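Researcher: Here's the sequence for the chain we discussed earlier.
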Amino acid sequence: MTRIILVTGGCGFIGANFVRLVHAERPDWRIVNVDKLTYAGNPHNLDGIAEGQNYRFVREDICNAQAMRRLFLEEKVDTVAHFAAESHVDRSISGPTAFIETNIVGTFSLLEAARALWLGDTWQGNQPCFLHVSTDEVYGSLGDSGYFTETTAYSPRSPYSASKASSDHLARAYFHTYGLPVRITNCSNNYGPYQFPEKLIPLTFNNARHGKPLPVYGDGKNIRDWLHVEDHCRAILLVIERGKDGDSYNIGGHNEKQNIEVVTTICDILDQKRGLLPGGRPRRKLISFVKDRLGHDRRYAIDAAKIQAELGWRPKMDFASGIAATIDWYLANSAWVNAVVDGSYRQYYAEMYGQALA
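Model: Thanks. This is the structure I predict for it:
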């Protein structure tokens, strides 16, 4: 029987890359893409994928519980890949409300819709799976050594990570209480095509491209483990197809880098590919250290031994090749970058989906 997968947030960065992967490699699956189309949800991320037997787009808020229940029933959804989330830590500090609503209430709405359909006496579909996509930030901050494992105690430090920790606990509770077939993944920092330019790598690229200042928090020595989005999406597909209900899987890239290293690497690549700035200035001269973010965790690092041992997943992309490929993609897709930065893609929203989004 054809798998019918509901992808939430499928017009966002990671969700869109996952939709593209499934569309290309699982052509017999039907993808139902649900996206509210907030500022970071861009339909152009899925240009080339047309509505039809194997793909449907639904503009809806996952917090709308009645709409989610109707959609699950109408499509006979048997699989969920739940990406939809407010995800930018800075935004959660200045405005946490949206993070509580989307990340906690939205997850609750989806769990309830899945429970109503799958655990009823009339369910006749495939063996179901609810894959909840989360973050390593739920674990808190590491010292100079050690790694996050699936048994690391949760210690969220920001409204964003607290909202994701809450949704993780809620999803896990639905497995233990109701027997809902939930699986959870916690990933390290993603990068790659279609990432909205509020995040470190696309923001640095775009500013450096135009000779604008490159803000770096604190001393720039906060460490993150970087995971190419294509490696992440392949891991998620593996967990859906071969993972174990009730289990969590950490997904990391084995690429620990200080933030300042990431920024200087992008500067050097652009100097090489586009030449120096006027006056022969290297782009490193654009770096400007700014006041550190509130509650800024010092180091994250993922131990991905479990998913490697049990499912055979390993990242294919090291950071050097991954960041070079990412910069090449942004340079080759300058129209996409420009439309996102200047906001003109929202005109497309108004034309396609109504003035409420304009």
